Amino acid sequence: MSRAAGVSRDSLNIDVYHKGVFSPNPLVYFHPDKVPIMGLDVRNMDFKKFKTYLQKLINNRCRDMYYCLKNRSLVDGLRELRDEDDYVRFLDAGFDDDDNQISIYIDDHHEPLLDWIEEEKAEEWDSGTETYEDDVDSVLSDDLSVDHEADDEGHSMA
């Protein structure tokens, strides 16, 4: 299914980033592999089925999963994806606009990402310097590319 066709409320286009390493201050995900999923039908998929699908797709367990809100830096947009409630919020964020696009990050190293984010925001507040929203060079978004080896074509699930 092409991106143009993936605009129904039933399917999502998801970029899955895995095998990377998170690093704090500023929060960055280094050297990930990227697996694009085009038009994943989520109508009858609960959190458990979704997690099982991802585990099979990347051939690895998904211990710590996160998604990032669109057009936000990791510090401002990263959210946990650990249960059914988080999954509902993830779907809402994915269907927030017409492209039905969202990114997932898998942390294989069980890093304290939310603590790192709190510390980074506290340091930013204490220093009184410009925020990441004002610093264009530090903002990560879905529109920026990530250096990685060439990917095979996207995976889909009807």
UniProtKB/TrEMBL annotation:
A Pfam family reported for this protein in Swiss-Prot or TrEMBL: PB1-like
Sequence ranges of Acidic residues compositional bias: 127-137
Residue ranges occupied by any PB1-like domain in the UniProt entry: 10-107
Location of region: Disordered: 127-158
Regions of compositional bias (Basic and acidic residues) in chain numbering: 145-158
InterPro entries: PB1-like_dom_pln
Top-level division of the source organism's lineage: Eukaryota
Organism: Lactuca saligna
Annotated protein name in UniProt: PB1-like domain-containing protein
